[in-house]
Design a protein that fits this description.
Chain A is mainly beta and 115 residues long. Helix content of chain A is 0%, strand content 54%. In chain A, strand 7 and strand 8 form a beta hairpin. Classes of the chains: A mainly beta (115), B mainly beta (112). At the A-B interface, strand 5 and strand 10 of A face strand 3, strand 4, strand 8 and strand 9 of B.
């Protein structure tokens, strides 16, 4: 398996633009997580899905952020409109089962810069 | 929500044993403790997981006291390639109030 795949790897955009980050989890994994990493706040869990259903989105910073998982092999994290403070590395991770405390496999991340 | 605290950084010489402690005073009954390693420009990578007592695998040991309010990751005989940031993750996803909380991370620098 190729592991968790994220695209794009780097994204530079201007304030106010819509940004869409993409993730393909490892096949067969039931849980999918979106994290944000910044120097100031470290690694933060934004939202996670179980069997394509969003379970907990309490980590999503505000309404500008939304995430979807239309099928077991694809998820998106959208920011609209984007702001400079959204600049961070966004990671997607997936795990097999058992309440999500199984090993999480992280993707390489998307480095987002909002100018 | 279990808040975690780790030392910001640690230094070690190659070949030494390194112990990194994570405090999680508010750990819940169902919470597991997991440690991850992160290299620059990469996502975190699983090292070890435990619930209580001691767990050992081919790369590390995890010590968890009976009260589970802390945990210690032990890396035997570190090498230069172990230079990375180490995170402890506490949490569980069962129930409606489930959360996962990463620690602030400990930056380990290994030198010759």
């Amino acid at each position: 398996d190729a592991g968790v795949i994220q695209s794009p790897r780097h994204e530079v955009t201007e304030m106010g633009q819509e940004v869409t980050l993409r993730c393909k989890p490892i096949s067969g994994h039931d849980y999918l997580f979106w994290y944000r990493q910044t120097m100031m706040r470290g690694l933060e869990l934004l939202i996670y899905f179980n069997n394509n259903v969003p379970i907990d989105d309490s980590g999503m910073p505000e309404d500008r952020f939304s995430a979807k998982m239309p099928n077991a092999s694809f998820s998106t994290l959208k920011i609209q409109p984007s702001e400079p403070r959204d600049s961070a590395v966004y990671f997607c991770a997936s795990s097999l089962d058992r309440r999500g405390t199984d090993t999480q496999y992280f993707g390489p991340g998307t480095r987002l810069t909002v100018l | 929500l279990a808040k975690t605290t780790q030392p910001i950084s640690m230094d070690s010489y190659e070949g030494q044993e390194v112990n990194i402690t994570c405090s999680h005073n508010n750990i819940a009954t169902n919470d597991y403790i997991t440690w991850y390693q992160q290299f620059p420009s990469q996502g975190p990578r699983f090292i070890i997981q435990g619930y209580k007592t001691k767990v050992t695998n081919e790369v590390a040991s995890l010590f968890i006291p009976a009260d589970r309010k802390s945990s210690t990751l032990s890396l035997p005989r570190v090498s230069l390639s172990d230079t990375a940031v180490y995170y402890c993750l506490v949490g569980d996803l069962t129930g409606t109030a489930s959360k996962l909380t990463f620690g602030t991370g400990t930056r380990l620098q290994v030198t010759l």
